[in-house]
Structure formats: structure tokens, C-alpha cells
Amino acid sequence: MTTAGSGADLPVVVATDQELAALKMELRGIRLRPGADTVELTVTAHEAEQAAQTGSLIVADEEGHPLATVTAVRIETGAAGTLTARGTARPTDPDAWIGPDTRGARLVIAHRPLLLSDTEELRAERGSTVVIVPTAGPSPDGLPAAVLEGVIRAALDGTAVRVLPLEIAWQLGAPADQAAALAETLGAASVAVLDPADPGWTRLLAALDDEGPAPALAAEAVLTGLRRWRSPLARRGLVVLFTGLSGSGKSTLAQGLTRWLADNGRSVSLLDGDRVRRLLSAGLGFDRASRDLNVRRIGFVAAEVARHGGVAVCAPIAPYAESRAAVRALAAEVGDFVLVHVSTPLEECERRDVKGLYARARTGELPSFTGISDPYEVPGDADVTLDTSRLSEHDALARLTGFLRARGWIGGAANP
After folding, report:
1. Angle at Cα 178 formed by Cα 202 and Cα 127, nearest 5°?
2. Is 214 in contact with 204 (CB distance < 8 Å)?
3. 213: which residues sit within 8 A by CB, 6+ positions away?
4. For domain 2-97, which architecture applies?
């Protein structure tokens, strides 16, 4: 966003096409961020300073025409120092919000890739059609927005149909009047939503898990793009995150799983808690923010391993649900994720403690010690739960590897 030349007392900012599209729909009551009652715009440091001083700003198009006034502006700093202005907007001229791209067109909102049957239907339509790719987040099936946009563009290559990516957090099962409101907002003649539960797409998505050829339900370019995103299970990137108290047996099980995966043909990397602390997270403390950042760093590296088809086995304590959810989200963008809760009771962990850490924590010598003076948030979303006070190492690993085999990430193999 850049400052437009204007003699107005309020700062005037020029919005990008996506920001304008988002603002148009928010002004018509179509919420792009569930629960939000404000608009948000990316601004420069100079614009942020002006807006903070005046408490308001004017949003303009590329020609500098004022389209809306945003009041009660507050400035927030986001990732990588990005400045965002948030406030309540009102249109300068409601009739000016309809752009030429969608006026009179048929809108198709694509929550999933286009099948051959979809493209045939689109080509049969008279007049212009605009396919809208929601890019505010992944699709209902977990396709990253960039992947979904890519395969839709591949399906429509060489046709008169255009893809118009917008930031729309479209809600599944939205009532007909919400779809009608979207068409009205963009000046479209009609709107349709591609059903993410379409039987053909469900069948194609399931086929991506197997090594065999996918059914010929989509164009070859679409299948190629989907295969890059979703490899067959036996070759797909995977993050296995162990979580549990100190002394629960996480490291022992993680090391055993790493050896077993390597013996069974998977490229595997081990990110163990103590080793990571000495290298990747050197300098971090043990306060909540540092613990959270430690786990997120592990998740970032693990996701990069999974991105290239490897398996990352991680064994931090990971005491906080928010941190574990962040790792799950990172992994889901590039592969699959398994959360293993090593649920060994605190009493058993203390009994095993050869380093005397729990005793030092009990006396206050070690502050912020998980399970004693710092909380451990028991996961409610674990895929596998293993109590090593009741299971031997062999039996715990057998249960875990059996789970991985049953889900398809590993082919048939002997027990560890």
C-alpha cells in the first residue's frame, strides 16, 4: 500500500486489489474473519504514524479515488514487522464498490480443485465466469491456498475463464442468502459453490494416498500438482511429535522409532529435546515464552524435513497445547502429523530421575520445572497414548509402529 497524493487532512492509502475486495465484502456484512467487526489494511510506517495521530484514514483505489473512511484506527505490528491498521469502515459511495471483473459474471467459489466435469460445465456456460479461490486459509481438505490456486489455474489453462483469488473465509453450509449477498457485493449475475464433499473429488483425494494411478477425474496437470502436494502415504513427509514429562520415556521411544523407520526404508531425522536445547535453541530460557519458541523452532525444522518427504521424530516436553497446535499446523501444510503422548505418571517419572532434577525442583532450586512449578497441559488430541509404567519399551514401540503401518505411512514390516 502506498500513500496517494491528496490534500485531505486524513492520510490517504491506496489498497491492493485483494484488500479492496475484502473491504467491499466486509462493508456489505460478509465477514472474512469470523467474529471480526473491523477491517484491516497493511500500511507503511509513515501511513501508520499519520493514522495514529488522526485516528482515521481514507482508503482509495489505484486512481486515488476515495472509496471508504476508516475510523477508530489502531496500529498493530505483525510478523516480520508488518504494520496493520484496524478500524471501522464506511463507504464513501456504496455504488462505487462494484468492479468490472465481476459485474454481470457468473461466480464459482472453488473450495476444491476442478474436476473434468466442472471444466466442461464451465465451458458450456455463456458469458463470463469468474472462479474465486478462497485464499484466507487451507481448503476444507487441507489444500494450502497456493496449491488450490495452482491446480485451478492448471485446469483452466487456455480457456476464457479467469481465476480471481480473494481472501474469503467462506463458511461451509453457508445459507443461500449469504451466497446471494456475495454476488450482489461483486455485481455478479449469479454465484455457485463447488461442493467440497463431491463424490468425485472425495474419490480422487483418497486415491492420492496410494501408489497406484489416480482415477481420470481431473486434468493431468491438476493431478501432477496434487501429487506434488500429497505424495502417496508411504513416501509422504511426516512429523511425529512425542510429548510428556521429563523422564516419561520420550527420548528412548523416539530413538527406537528412529532406528525402526531407518531400517524400514524411510529417511528420518531425530530432533530430541536435550540436543535441540544445546544447538537449535541455545540461549533460550525456561519461561513460558522460551518454551513455546523452542517447540515452534522444532516444528519449523520438522516441517522442512517433511516438506522433502522425510520423517521428523521430535521429542521435546512440549507442555503447552498452543505450541503443539502450532507444530501440527506447520506439518499439515507440507505433510502429515502424529502426536504421541507419553503419559507416564509424575510419580514414576520422579522415581526414574537419575539426574535429580525433580528433587531440585521440589526444593525450588530449579524454577519453572514442568510438572512441579510449571504446568503440563495434557493433550486431548493425541493420536497415540503410551504409558511406559505399564508398557515395556518393546511393547510401546510395537503399538506405535503398528499404528503407523495401519495408517499407511509404513509398509508391512517386522516388529521393532
Report:
1. 75
2. yes
3. none
4. Roll (3.10)
Alpha carbon of residue 253 to chain centroid: 28
Q: 233-407 belongs to which CATH class?
A: alpha beta
Residue 147 dihedral angles phi and psi, to the nearest 5°: -65, -45
Q: Does domain 106-200 have CATH number 1.10.3470?
A: no
Q: What is the pLDDT along the chain (416 residues), one digit of tens a residue?
A: 434 434 457 888 887 766 776 677 666 655 555 455 677 788 888 888 888 888 888 888 777 888 888 888 888 887 667 788 888 888 787 655 545 467 788 888 888 999 999 988 888 777 788 887 877 667 878 888 888 888 998 888 655 466 655 544 444 445 566 667 667 767 788 888 888 889 999 999 999 998 888 889 999 999 999 998 888 998 999 999 999 999 999 999 999 999 999 999 899 999 987 778 888 888 888 889 999 999 999 999 999 999 999 999 999 999 999 999 999 999 988 899 999 999 999 999 999 998 899 999 999 999 889 999 999 999 999 999 999 999 999 999 999 999 999 999 987 544 45
Fold match between domain 106-200 and domain 233-407: yes
H-only helix segments in 72-175: 116-124, 145-155
Question: In terms of pTM, does the model score above 0.70?
Answer: no
Return the domain boundaries, the chain: 2-97, 106-200, 233-407
